[in-house]
Amino acid sequence: MQIIVRLDVMLAKRKMKSKDLAEVIGISTQNLSLLKTGQVRGIRFETLAKICAALDCQPGDLLEAVPDD
Q1: What's the pTM value of the predicted model, to 2 decimals?
Q2: What is the residue-wise DSSP string for 14-30?
């Protein structure tokens, strides 16, 4: 099972740029880019909560579990 990050989809739905989200939640644009592309090994619940608050969404809107082939 792998976890797919759908942050780019939610950003598009909310018409928000990555740079603006990074500023609102207090992380660097580089770290947000790594998260957006799924190149991180984990995320702090505090960061996830800030993203959800900024985008007015639930964690399930950002993360999707996909079975391995």
Answers
A1: 0.89
A2: TT--HHHHHHHHT--HH
